[in-house]
Amino acid sequence: MARMKFLCDAERCIECNGCVTACKQENEVPWGVNRRRVVTLNDGVPGERSISVACMHCSDAPCMAVCPVDCFYRTDEGVVLHDKDLCIGCGYCFYACPFGAPQFPQAGAFGLRGKMDKCTFCAGGPEKDNSKEEYAKYGSNRLAQGKLPACAEMCSTKALLGGDSDIISDIYRQRVLKRGKGSEVWGWGTAYGKPDNPQARPPQGAKS
Amino acid sequence: MKTSLGLLLAALVAAGFLSGCGEREQVVVYKQGKYQGKPDSKPWDNEPGSALYTTSKWSRGDKTGWETALRARNQSQNEYTRAE
User: Fold this and answer.
1) Which domain holds residue A160?
2) Which residues of A touch B80 (CB under 8 A)?
3) Could you point out which of A3, A16, B14, B17 has its C-alpha 20 to 30 Å from the C-alpha of A188?
4) Residue A134 lies in a domain
5) Number of independent structural domains in chain A
6) What is the pTM of this model?
7) What DSSP character marks residue B38?
8) What is the ipTM of this complex?
9) What is the CATH number of the domain that holds A25?
Protein backbone atom coordinates (compact mmCIF):
# COMPACT_ATOMS: atom_id res chain seq x y z
CA MET A 1 0.00 0.00 0.00
CA ALA A 2 1.18 3.48 -0.79
CA ARG A 3 1.07 6.25 1.77
CA MET A 4 -2.07 7.92 3.08
CA LYS A 5 -2.93 11.38 1.80
CA PHE A 6 -5.76 13.89 1.72
CA LEU A 7 -6.89 15.56 -1.49
CA CYS A 8 -9.45 18.35 -1.69
CA ASP A 9 -11.16 19.03 -5.00
CA ALA A 10 -11.93 22.76 -4.98
CA GLU A 11 -14.22 22.35 -8.01
CA ARG A 12 -16.51 20.13 -5.93
CA CYS A 13 -16.42 21.56 -2.42
CA ILE A 14 -19.72 23.28 -1.65
CA GLU A 15 -18.63 24.58 1.77
CA CYS A 16 -21.23 22.47 3.58
CA ASN A 17 -18.86 21.84 6.52
CA GLY A 18 -19.92 18.20 6.61
CA CYS A 19 -16.27 17.18 7.00
CA VAL A 20 -15.84 19.51 9.97
CA THR A 21 -18.97 18.14 11.63
CA ALA A 22 -17.99 14.53 10.91
CA CYS A 23 -14.57 15.09 12.47
CA LYS A 24 -16.01 16.80 15.53
CA GLN A 25 -18.56 14.07 16.04
CA GLU A 26 -16.27 11.12 15.35
CA ASN A 27 -13.47 12.28 17.62
CA GLU A 28 -15.44 14.26 20.20
CA VAL A 29 -13.10 17.19 19.73
CA PRO A 30 -13.41 19.78 22.52
CA TRP A 31 -14.64 23.33 22.09
CA GLY A 32 -12.09 25.67 20.57
CA VAL A 33 -10.23 22.90 18.77
CA ASN A 34 -10.84 22.51 15.05
CA ARG A 35 -8.92 19.65 13.57
CA ARG A 36 -10.51 20.33 10.20
CA ARG A 37 -12.05 23.48 8.79
CA VAL A 38 -13.32 24.79 5.48
CA VAL A 39 -11.49 27.78 4.02
CA THR A 40 -12.88 29.99 1.26
CA LEU A 41 -10.42 31.43 -1.21
CA ASN A 42 -11.20 34.76 -2.88
CA ASP A 43 -14.36 35.11 -0.82
CA GLY A 44 -17.01 37.19 -2.57
CA VAL A 45 -15.09 37.37 -5.82
CA PRO A 46 -16.59 35.60 -8.84
CA GLY A 47 -14.99 32.17 -9.10
CA GLU A 48 -14.39 31.80 -5.36
CA ARG A 49 -13.40 28.33 -4.19
CA SER A 50 -13.63 26.49 -0.90
CA ILE A 51 -11.30 23.84 0.39
CA SER A 52 -11.26 21.63 3.43
CA VAL A 53 -8.03 21.93 5.40
CA ALA A 54 -6.52 19.82 8.18
CA CYS A 55 -3.18 18.20 8.86
CA MET A 56 -1.98 16.93 5.48
CA HIS A 57 0.47 14.43 6.99
CA CYS A 58 3.35 15.94 5.04
CA SER A 59 6.13 13.87 3.52
CA ASP A 60 8.76 16.06 5.14
CA ALA A 61 6.75 17.38 8.07
CA PRO A 62 7.99 20.73 9.45
CA CYS A 63 6.25 20.08 12.78
CA MET A 64 8.41 17.00 13.28
CA ALA A 65 11.52 18.99 12.49
CA VAL A 66 10.87 21.79 14.98
CA CYS A 67 9.42 19.85 17.93
CA PRO A 68 11.84 20.39 20.83
CA VAL A 69 10.72 17.25 22.66
CA ASP A 70 10.50 15.07 19.52
CA CYS A 71 6.95 13.94 20.23
CA PHE A 72 6.04 13.29 16.57
CA TYR A 73 6.39 10.08 14.63
CA ARG A 74 5.39 8.83 11.23
CA THR A 75 3.78 5.46 10.74
CA ASP A 76 4.39 3.04 7.88
CA GLU A 77 1.22 4.34 6.23
CA GLY A 78 2.69 7.86 6.11
CA VAL A 79 0.46 9.23 8.86
CA VAL A 80 2.09 11.86 11.10
CA LEU A 81 1.08 11.27 14.71
CA HIS A 82 2.23 12.62 18.05
CA ASP A 83 2.53 11.43 21.61
CA LYS A 84 0.53 13.69 23.95
CA ASP A 85 2.43 12.31 26.94
CA LEU A 86 5.58 13.92 25.55
CA CYS A 87 4.04 17.16 24.20
CA ILE A 88 4.75 20.25 26.30
CA GLY A 89 2.36 22.55 24.38
CA CYS A 90 5.09 24.97 23.34
CA GLY A 91 3.38 25.83 20.04
CA TYR A 92 6.45 25.61 17.79
CA CYS A 93 4.61 23.15 15.52
CA PHE A 94 1.82 25.68 15.03
CA TYR A 95 4.29 28.25 13.72
CA ALA A 96 6.00 25.69 11.49
CA CYS A 97 2.88 24.14 9.96
CA PRO A 98 1.91 25.63 6.55
CA PHE A 99 -1.69 24.49 7.06
CA GLY A 100 -2.33 25.74 10.60
CA ALA A 101 -3.16 22.21 11.66
CA PRO A 102 -1.88 22.05 15.27
CA GLN A 103 -4.54 23.19 17.71
CA PHE A 104 -4.19 24.00 21.38
CA PRO A 105 -7.03 23.66 23.86
CA GLN A 106 -7.16 26.30 26.55
CA ALA A 107 -5.96 24.49 29.65
CA GLY A 108 -6.77 27.04 32.31
CA ALA A 109 -6.81 30.68 33.26
CA PHE A 110 -4.49 33.32 31.76
CA GLY A 111 -4.52 31.71 28.29
CA LEU A 112 -2.57 28.63 29.34
CA ARG A 113 -2.16 26.22 26.46
CA GLY A 114 -2.84 22.54 26.73
CA LYS A 115 -1.22 19.76 24.79
CA MET A 116 -1.35 19.99 21.02
CA ASP A 117 -4.22 18.34 19.21
CA LYS A 118 -4.43 17.73 15.48
CA CYS A 119 -5.93 15.49 12.84
CA THR A 120 -4.67 11.93 13.23
CA PHE A 121 -6.02 10.71 9.88
CA CYS A 122 -8.39 8.84 12.22
CA ALA A 123 -5.43 6.66 13.22
CA GLY A 124 -5.44 7.25 16.99
CA GLY A 125 -2.15 7.46 18.84
CA PRO A 126 0.38 5.47 20.82
CA GLU A 127 -2.18 3.89 23.17
CA LYS A 128 -3.68 0.45 22.49
CA ASP A 129 -5.77 0.51 19.30
CA ASN A 130 -9.45 1.30 19.88
CA SER A 131 -8.97 1.54 23.66
CA LYS A 132 -10.79 4.05 25.85
CA GLU A 133 -7.48 5.76 26.64
CA GLU A 134 -6.67 6.20 22.96
CA TYR A 135 -10.14 7.58 22.24
CA ALA A 136 -9.95 10.06 25.11
CA LYS A 137 -6.61 11.44 23.97
CA TYR A 138 -6.66 11.18 20.20
CA GLY A 139 -10.17 10.26 19.13
CA SER A 140 -11.28 7.42 16.93
CA ASN A 141 -8.88 4.93 15.34
CA ARG A 142 -10.76 4.14 12.16
CA LEU A 143 -7.73 2.85 10.29
CA ALA A 144 -7.47 0.04 12.82
CA GLN A 145 -11.14 -0.72 12.09
CA GLY A 146 -10.46 -0.96 8.35
CA LYS A 147 -12.08 2.40 7.67
CA LEU A 148 -10.90 5.69 6.21
CA PRO A 149 -11.08 9.11 7.92
CA ALA A 150 -14.64 10.13 8.78
CA CYS A 151 -14.33 13.53 7.06
CA ALA A 152 -13.52 12.00 3.67
CA GLU A 153 -16.05 9.20 3.95
CA MET A 154 -18.81 11.62 4.98
CA CYS A 155 -18.11 14.20 2.25
CA SER A 156 -21.37 14.51 0.32
CA THR A 157 -19.84 15.65 -2.96
CA LYS A 158 -16.70 13.56 -2.55
CA ALA A 159 -14.67 16.75 -2.83
CA LEU A 160 -12.50 15.55 0.03
CA LEU A 161 -10.74 12.33 -0.77
CA GLY A 162 -8.65 10.52 1.81
CA GLY A 163 -6.72 7.30 1.68
CA ASP A 164 -4.11 5.48 -0.36
CA SER A 165 -2.48 8.13 -2.54
CA ASP A 166 -2.36 5.87 -5.60
CA ILE A 167 -6.11 5.31 -5.50
CA ILE A 168 -7.24 8.85 -4.65
CA SER A 169 -4.99 10.39 -7.32
CA ASP A 170 -6.44 7.92 -9.82
CA ILE A 171 -9.97 8.95 -8.83
CA TYR A 172 -9.03 12.60 -9.18
CA ARG A 173 -7.31 12.04 -12.53
CA GLN A 174 -10.42 10.35 -13.89
CA ARG A 175 -12.56 13.27 -12.71
CA VAL A 176 -10.33 15.90 -14.28
CA LEU A 177 -10.32 14.04 -17.58
CA LYS A 178 -14.13 13.83 -17.58
CA ARG A 179 -14.77 17.47 -16.75
CA GLY A 180 -11.72 18.82 -18.58
CA LYS A 181 -10.69 21.38 -15.95
CA GLY A 182 -9.60 21.91 -12.37
CA SER A 183 -6.47 19.81 -12.28
CA GLU A 184 -4.80 21.93 -9.60
CA VAL A 185 -4.78 20.37 -6.17
CA TRP A 186 -4.39 22.89 -3.41
CA GLY A 187 -1.67 22.08 -0.89
CA TRP A 188 -0.25 18.96 -2.52
CA GLY A 189 3.00 20.60 -3.58
CA THR A 190 3.49 22.00 -0.08
CA ALA A 191 2.62 18.78 1.70
CA TYR A 192 3.96 16.06 -0.56
CA GLY A 193 6.34 17.92 -2.87
CA LYS A 194 10.03 17.36 -3.17
CA PRO A 195 11.51 17.06 0.32
CA ASP A 196 13.91 19.75 1.49
CA ASN A 197 16.28 17.01 2.48
CA PRO A 198 17.39 15.20 -0.70
CA GLN A 199 18.98 12.50 1.46
CA ALA A 200 15.57 11.52 2.87
CA ARG A 201 14.68 7.99 1.88
CA PRO A 202 11.20 6.53 1.45
CA PRO A 203 9.99 4.17 4.16
CA GLN A 204 11.45 0.68 3.91
CA GLY A 205 9.23 -1.94 2.37
CA ALA A 206 6.83 0.59 0.85
CA LYS A 207 5.62 -0.09 -2.67
CA SER A 208 5.42 3.50 -3.76
CA MET B 1 46.60 29.13 30.57
CA LYS B 2 43.48 30.91 31.74
CA THR B 3 42.82 32.27 28.24
CA SER B 4 43.11 28.85 26.57
CA LEU B 5 40.79 27.33 29.16
CA GLY B 6 38.28 30.10 28.49
CA LEU B 7 38.57 29.53 24.74
CA LEU B 8 38.04 25.79 25.17
CA LEU B 9 34.98 26.43 27.31
CA ALA B 10 33.58 28.88 24.75
CA ALA B 11 34.15 26.34 21.96
CA LEU B 12 32.33 23.67 23.95
CA VAL B 13 29.38 25.96 24.64
CA ALA B 14 29.23 26.96 20.94
CA ALA B 15 29.28 23.29 19.91
CA GLY B 16 26.44 22.62 22.35
CA PHE B 17 24.33 25.39 20.87
CA LEU B 18 25.12 24.31 17.31
CA SER B 19 23.91 20.78 17.99
CA GLY B 20 20.44 22.27 18.48
CA CYS B 21 20.44 23.39 14.83
CA GLY B 22 20.62 19.85 13.50
CA GLU B 23 17.69 18.20 11.78
CA ARG B 24 16.79 14.57 12.32
CA GLU B 25 16.08 12.35 9.36
CA GLN B 26 12.37 11.62 9.07
CA VAL B 27 12.73 7.98 8.17
CA VAL B 28 10.17 5.50 9.40
CA VAL B 29 11.76 2.92 11.66
CA TYR B 30 9.52 0.42 13.43
CA LYS B 31 11.36 -1.58 16.08
CA GLN B 32 9.92 -3.63 18.93
CA GLY B 33 6.52 -1.97 18.72
CA LYS B 34 7.92 1.53 18.58
CA TYR B 35 8.13 4.19 15.88
CA GLN B 36 11.25 6.25 16.55
CA GLY B 37 10.88 5.54 20.24
CA LYS B 38 7.12 6.20 20.42
CA PRO B 39 5.00 3.11 21.10
CA ASP B 40 2.27 2.25 18.60
CA SER B 41 0.88 -0.83 16.96
CA LYS B 42 0.12 -1.57 13.33
CA PRO B 43 -3.52 -1.06 12.33
CA TRP B 44 -3.81 -4.69 11.18
CA ASP B 45 -2.47 -6.03 14.48
CA ASN B 46 -5.69 -5.43 16.41
CA GLU B 47 -8.86 -7.42 16.86
CA PRO B 48 -10.85 -6.86 13.66
CA GLY B 49 -14.53 -6.43 14.21
CA SER B 50 -14.05 -5.57 17.88
CA ALA B 51 -15.34 -2.07 17.28
CA LEU B 52 -18.98 -1.33 16.61
CA TYR B 53 -20.25 -1.12 13.04
CA THR B 54 -17.10 -2.58 11.52
CA THR B 55 -17.76 -3.91 8.07
CA SER B 56 -14.18 -4.65 7.07
CA LYS B 57 -12.89 -8.13 7.81
CA TRP B 58 -9.35 -9.41 8.14
CA SER B 59 -7.58 -11.70 10.55
CA ARG B 60 -5.23 -10.36 13.18
CA GLY B 61 -1.81 -9.57 11.75
CA ASP B 62 -2.95 -10.07 8.15
CA LYS B 63 -1.55 -6.99 6.46
CA THR B 64 -2.70 -7.98 2.98
CA GLY B 65 -6.24 -8.57 4.24
CA TRP B 66 -6.29 -5.17 5.89
CA GLU B 67 -4.97 -3.53 2.73
CA THR B 68 -7.64 -5.24 0.64
CA ALA B 69 -10.35 -4.06 3.04
CA LEU B 70 -9.04 -0.52 2.92
CA ARG B 71 -8.69 -0.57 -0.85
CA ALA B 72 -12.35 -1.55 -1.20
CA ARG B 73 -13.27 1.26 1.15
CA ASN B 74 -11.11 3.63 -0.89
CA GLN B 75 -12.84 2.71 -4.10
CA SER B 76 -16.21 3.60 -2.61
CA GLN B 77 -15.07 7.21 -2.88
CA ASN B 78 -15.10 6.87 -6.64
CA GLU B 79 -18.67 7.48 -7.79
CA TYR B 80 -17.76 6.78 -11.41
CA THR B 81 -17.26 3.11 -10.54
CA ARG B 82 -20.17 3.13 -8.09
CA ALA B 83 -22.59 4.47 -10.69
CA GLU B 84 -21.55 2.13 -13.49
Assistant:
1) 4-192
2) 171, 174-175, 178
3) A16
4) yes
5) 1
6) 0.84
7) E
8) 0.83
9) 3.30.70.20
